[in-house]
Amino acid sequence: MAKKSKKQQSGGTPATVALTAAGISYTVHAYDHDPAHPSYGEEAAEAMGVSPDRVFKTLVADVDGTLTIAVVPVAGQLDLKALAAAVGGKRAAMADPALAERTTGYVRGGISPLGQRKTLPTVLDASAAAHATICVSAGRRGLEVELAPEDLQKLTEAVLAPVGR
Fold first, then answer.
1. Residue 23 — left, alpha, or beta (φ > 0 → left; ψ -120 to 50 → alpha)?
2. Is the entire prediction scored with pTM above 0.85?
3. In contact, 83 and 61? CB cutoff 8 Å
4. What are the tens digits of pLDDT across the range 27-86?
5. How many of the other CB atoms lie within 10 Å of CB of 6?
6. Measuring CA to CA, how many Å separate 37 from each of 21, 34, 48, 141?
7. Alpha-carbon distance 10 to 156, whole Å?
8. Per-residue pLDDT reduced to its tens digit, 85-131
9. N or C: which end of the chain has fewer CB within 10 A?
């Protein structure tokens, strides 16, 4: 049986456990989540004092019947047509939130592209490559991980494509 790291012993999320297991360097940012805030992503950017173009939200879409992860800047929106094209599909629509939660193992507003229950096709917006580090959900509201976009791309086997607008 593998020895648990300190992060695993102290109750890390599946996302931080996956990062630790892969040996990827990352920084955890915790903040007090305000349930009344209208946007989880914008709240994270404000709380951390990070530009919204470096904070990415994880969205779950249905592309031709296949759940697909899109990771896009919180300052923008997901272009569903571009997402479908990026994975060779024809049509994309946002997934049912309850299905997204069941499939990923995370709650809405805390869905991380890392450590999901089921590995899903993932597309990382091309704008991520312009930054040394980006922030994504660490698997719960009020918790973000900062890491190099190429590490996120490698660990999630993401396609890099312009899917944000």
1. left
2. yes
3. yes
4. 999 888 877 777 777 888 888 888 889 999 999 999 999 999 999 999 889 999 999 999
5. 8
6. 33, 6, 15, 12
7. 24
8. 999 999 999 999 999 999 999 998 889 999 999 889 999 999 999 99
9. N
Rounded to the nearest 10 degrees, how much is the dihedral formed by the CA atoms of 121, 71, 137, 68?
-30
C-alpha distances (whole Å) from 83 to each of 34, 88, 89, 154, 156 are: 30, 9, 8, 19, 16
The single-letter code of the amino acid at 71 is V
| Distance of alpha carbon 52 from alpha carbon 58, whole angstroms | 14
- Token reading at 89: 């599909």
Q: Check whether 10 has a pLDDT greater than 70.
A: no
Instruction: Describe the crossing of helices 149-156 and 14-22 by its angle, rounded to 10 degrees.
Output: 100
